[in-house]
Write a structure and sequence with these properties.
alpha/beta, two-stranded parallel ribbon, 50% helix, seven-stranded mixed beta barrel
Length: 594
């Protein structure tokens, strides 16, 4: 009996959860198309939140009746005394929210001849719910409209306005996802490739004797576990502070983005500007803080242009028609700059960073809704901007592309599709590590290509999850396993997991190729290899001091005699073969005449 009672209780709880889930799914976004009653063909769509269990809305605007709106927001419509004398015959009244249930409002409106009901809410829109009996009694649609939209409606169309309620189908996947996919994968691929190539150049520049601007610009920052811990703590703290003090800190983030993005844009364009045949003259000698380095005029003009682009975006950042193009361009430049500046020295560091940020992303998207009073995710709330924000500002640390389809979701909830910079930078650092490792072990870039393809697959899985769940997704939930597992699988397949994990190929510079100069402490042939040393180059013979004629030779020790006896005899070289062939080191390192 106890087991049966427990099973019945579990079924009851499961049924209650199913009903709650069904109530959430039943809530849908729709549109109210408003046009002037004076015959102006132009109109505008406003967001509404409705429950299809009251009455379903047509999917096509042409099938929705265009009815006159009646402003009745001075009344709550909770009793028959609140009804107008002439009723709401063939009209859609707008009434204020509060003091009674949605069912009481819509029942009075329907009894008075209304063809629909719009409830104006000053608070956050919530689903107009009810029970099955109430749903069966009501045959007109009921929806919630925000107070801000109502003011804009009457300001644009006046009191003589007509409206039609409809709910077009949501597309399974918006086409703007293709644009975001190409930008993200392209940034990761170009940034990872550039980071590996710059690492090779950085090793070459170590052998140059000058400290020119090219050598100074190739400096990179190696990430340590302590730096990873500090970075994650800072990310968590900043996210929580933004959640509680968004209106105050959003301008700080905007300022940081302007400064960092202009620096990134300069770093990306400077290599191309240096190839220009003009503007090589330098600024005259001066004592100014930056100009004392006497930068070239072309680089100075480039810096001014980059700052100007950043300032233009900062001034017009809320222009939804075109400002997103500048934001994406600056964001991509910033990501490329970070990928070539920040360097993960080992796959162990890559794994630590990705796993910690994986937990961070999942926690702030899926766990924080249970910890906040509003029940909203801290990550999604901060990324999209709080609905109650007085500034209406959005954080710029995302790639954003407007939705290309006209849908209620684009109008009501997310007019832009977003992808955070962290979803590009974090896996991109692993892609950059794979390319650097490819170069050092001469693996034909198999790690780099495999990790880049894995990133693209993970991003596609993220988009599918977003389309199926219709809610913000932590992209690292899908990107981190795809990239880490793929990189590890390639290392296992090539039997290089130990070297790949510790990064020992970078520390010891074991493999050398024709493009990478060997250091002074490079690998030396073993003493017992049985080979004869090659004759020294002529330059080295000229640099050696000649022995004095009167200086007697030092007597040979027994050890030297034994070593000479055990050494293999060398064939005498002819004059045709006595000239040494330049090695990779000779080709890579400039001579004394340079």
């Amino acid at each position: 009996m106890a087991a049966a009672a427990a099973a019945a209780l579990a079924l009851a709880r499961l049924g209650t959860a199913f009903l709650l889930l069904a109530a959430q799914v039943a809530c849908e976004y729709g549109m109210v198309h408003v046009a002037s009653e004076l015959g102006d063909p132009r109109g505008r769509d406003y967001c509404i939140l409705y429950n299809p269990q009251w009455a379903r809305l047509p999917h096509d605007l042409s099938k929705a009746p265009l009815l006159q709106l009646q402003d009745w927001t001075s009344s709550m419509l909770c009793s028959p005394s609140d009804l107008p004398t002439a009723g709401f015959s063939n009209r859609i009244p707008l009434v204020a929210r509060g003091n009674c249930t949605f069912y009481e409002k819509v029942r009075l409106a329907q009894g008075s001849g209304a063809r629909g009901l719009l409830i104006v809410s000053r608070e956050k829109l919530v689903p107009p719910g009810g029970n099955k009996t109430q749903y069966d009694e009501v045959g007109i649609p009921v929806a919630l409209l925000s107070h801000r939209d109502m003011l804009d409606l009457f300001k644009s169309f006046g009191r003589a306005a007509k409206a039609a309620l409809y709910a077009p189908d949501e597309p399974v996947l918006d086409y703007n996802m293709v644009t975001i996919f190409l930008m993200a994968v392209g940034t990761v691929a170009v940034g990872g490739y550039w980071a590996g190539s710059r690492d090779v150049k950085r090793r070459y520049m170590k052998h140059k004797r000058d400290d020119g601007p090219e050598k100074q610009e190739d400096e990179a920052v190696d990430v340590t576990p302590v730096m990873i811990g500090v970075f994650v703590v800072m990310c968590c703290s900043m996210l929580v502070l933004l959640y509680y003090f968004y209106d105050h800190l959003v301008y700080v983030v905007i300022g940081i983005f302007c400064l960092a993005s202009s620096t990134g844009l300069y770093s990306c364009l400077a290599p191309f500007v240096r190839r220009l045949p003009f503007g090589k003259c330098r600024v005259p000698d001066n004592s100014l803080p930056y100009f004392h380095k006497r930068p070239q005029v072309r680089l100075l003009l480039l810096a001014l242009a980059c700052v100007s682009v950043s300032v233009v975006w900062g001034v017009f950042r809320n222009e939804d028609q075109w400002a997103w193009v500048l934001q994406d361009a600056l964001g991509i430049a910033f990501c490329l700059y970070m990928l070539k500046t920040i360097r993960l020295p080992t796959f162990k560091a890559c794994t630590l960073l990705l796993l910690v940020l994986f937990i961070y992303d999942v926690f702030f998207v899926f766990v924080t809704p249970f910890l906040t009073k509003s029940g909203n995710s801290i990550m999604v709330e901060v990324a999209t901007g709080p609905s109650d924000s007085a500034t209406r500002e959005k954080l710029p640390m995302v790639l954003k592309v407007p939705r290309l389809s006209s849908s209620p979701l684009a109008l009501c909830d997310r007019p832009f599709s977003l992808l955070g910079f962290g979803d590009i930078l974090v896996p991109g650092l692993l892609v950059a590590y794979c390319h650097r490792f490819d170069i050092h072990v001469q693996s034909s870039r198999i790690y780099f290509v495999a990790c880049t393809i894995a990133y693209g697959i993970g991003l596609l899985v993220t988009f599918v999850a977003l389309a199926l769940m219709q809610r913000g997704q932590p992209a690292l939930l899908y990107l981190v396993p795809c990239t880490l597992i793929t990189s590890c699988a390639v290392a296992l397949w090539r039997r290089e997991l130990g070297v790949f994990w510790t990064g020992s190929g970078f520390a010891k510079d074991l493999p050398q190729s024709s493009w990478a100069p060997a250091g002074a402490d490079g690998p030396q042939p073993p003493k017992d290899a049985g080979t004869c040393p090659s004759p020294p180059p002529p330059n080295e013979e000229l640099l050696r001091p000649p022995l004095q004629a009167e200086q007697p030779p030092e007597p040979a020790t027994p050890q030297d005699t034994e070593a000479a006896a055990s050494a293999p005899a060398c064939e005498p070289t002819s004059p045709a073969t006595s000239t040494p062939v330049p090695t990779a080191q000779d080709q890579g390192q400039p001579g004394a005449s340079d």
